[in-house]
Amino acid sequence: xxxxxxxASYDHQESPGGFPWGxxxxxxxxxxxxxxxxxxxxxxxxxxxxxxxTVVMAGxxxxxxxxxxxxxxxxxxxxxxxxxxxxxxxxxxxxxxxxPSTLTxxxxxxxxxxxxxxxxxxALAGANPATFKLRDWAMLVxxxxxxxxxxxxxxxxxxxxxxxxxxxxxxxxxxxxxxTCCTVDARPVVVTVVKAEWAKSYKPDHWLEVxxxxxxxxxxxxxxxxxxxxxxxxxxPAPDTPYEY
Length: 245
Known about the structure:
Layout: H1 2-14, H2 21-38, H3 51-72, H4 82-97, H5 105-110, H6 134-140, H7 146-150, E1 154-163, E2 171-178, E3 187-194, E4 207-216, E5 226-235
Antiparallel strand pairs: 1-2, 1-4, 2-3, 4-5
Helix pairs in contact: 2-3, 2-4
């Protein structure tokens, strides 16, 4: 009896665990991040300044996952976990097959356009307005001191369409997202464009290149003191890098 007990105990100690689904999921995630970095699509998730660090860490994680798998030894003991199989398949589809999606006009409205853009605009003083991004104009058009300085200023801006807060028929927002760290903390910035019955020609999330001049206004949505009076509006494809940094 003692011999049988010892033999059973030995078998229990030597039997490897189930299939290492956790390692597989970790490996898939690490490889997906490296692939996004190589193909230039990691910018759709994080600020470009973090790309190299993220790819390097993902590469190290992939090596660690493979090493752990080899050391542990592959085994199917314990049965197949269909939930784990489904999770692995879903991760492959989400990260490697389905194209990354960008934030939308609906996301912008949920995050309050131009919130946090009341920063000090003195940093832009003396700079060439032709170099200003949409994020810069989003600050300036809400600054009362900008009326005297920028009224009549010609601008050419590219962004996506979204309705104003009060759903005006004669005005729409031209917006972009500003990413500080990753898309989770992305904040929408907008300028107001004057266009009668704009919704008949343009839909939310459509990308436009708007050329025109800034004009003062008293009742613009969001408290803006300057809006864009367009001389030309041209539909354009969404840029490869839709965010500003």
